[in-house]
């Protein structure tokens, strides 16, 4: 079937067209050929096959632009060995796909238990109906003795001074597809529970060191993102010219305004990921009010930050990308209460993270010429539904890759 049309109760396009009631979309050879009302398109394309989703909402599929599914997750979730690491990795990716996510921004940080090269990760995704971008990074983990790793040096720990070595930084930068958390301005708790990582939050770099790293990325024509939290670290990131702030927990109102003026993009992780309380719905509202094209991401797999009012968890178990809709829901609800349009709200999980990945001309909206990556669901993901079971179909490049009956 190279051409077909779907008809839905409504289509939330996240494009200039907004929401289309009784909508239709024509798909030809992996791409969206046309989107409009059923009334118009049924006349324009009278003889092609129609798939009826009269009770359902059709939206772009989700984009999670900050995850650790292939490197950290397999050893955290399963008793894998290097021989079986990527079997678990593929199961984890399938689980993400079944949650309505068809594009990921994966971090390759270097890991004591994963002696893989960046190309091993790239190879592991072959044949999986998911669009994966990789950010290659260095990482500083806040153990009692802070441990540093990089995507290039793999499982061998490095010294702080290696993290600013221009030769190594250049190698890391060259491999990076997009501005993920390329550097960790603060030592991270990673996916460890708080008591295991007492040094989480400690600032690793001087502003001068950071500027040197930022320059290397920019000279290669690449953007750089940073893992950062707290007023001091965020001030340094903005001063150093970092393009994307990941987490930005504890950002001040002035810094939100400054980030907006500088055109700095932000990836919020309301579940946790740093030493500080994660992004609240009120903070997300401030980002959107300041016209920042905000993305919400899971940083999966992570334990939820303990004692946070807007998270529904009573445990410290690792949470995966299947939680994206749930952790975004309080923020999306608050945006709705503040009269934001549902397309603007859904952009936090679709178009905006696609921009972070540099793939906004490929997916993230339902628009003529883009990949036919979309969901058939019982409501708007994250805003009206939070459970993966309410996503009935996942389409990737025009093909049904997940179907719940
Ligand atoms: Zn992360």
What report would you give on this structure?
By secondary structure, the chain is of the alpha/beta class. It has two domains: 3-60 and 365-403, Urease, subunit C, domain 1; 62-355, TIM Barrel (Alpha-Beta Barrel). It is 28% helix and 25% strand. It contains 13 helices and 17 strands. It has helices at residues 38-44, 73-77, 85-98, 118-124, 160-163, 166-175, 207-219, 231-240, 253-262, 281-289, 324-337, 342-346, 351-356, and strands at 3-12, 19-28, 31-37, 50-60, 62-67, 101-108, 131-136, 138-141, 147-150, 183-184, 225-229, 244-249, 265-268, 295-296, 374-377, 391-396, 399-403. It has a seven-stranded mixed β-sheet with strand order 3-2-1-4-15-16-17. It has a five-stranded parallel β-sheet with strand order 10-11-12-13-14. Strands 5-6-7 form a three-stranded parallel β-sheet. The protein is globular, with a radius of gyration of 21 Å. Bound molecules: zinc ion. The site of zinc ion has 6 residues, from loops. One of its GO terms (molecular function) is hydrolase activity, acting on carbon-nitrogen (but not peptide) bonds. It comes from Psychrobacillus soli.
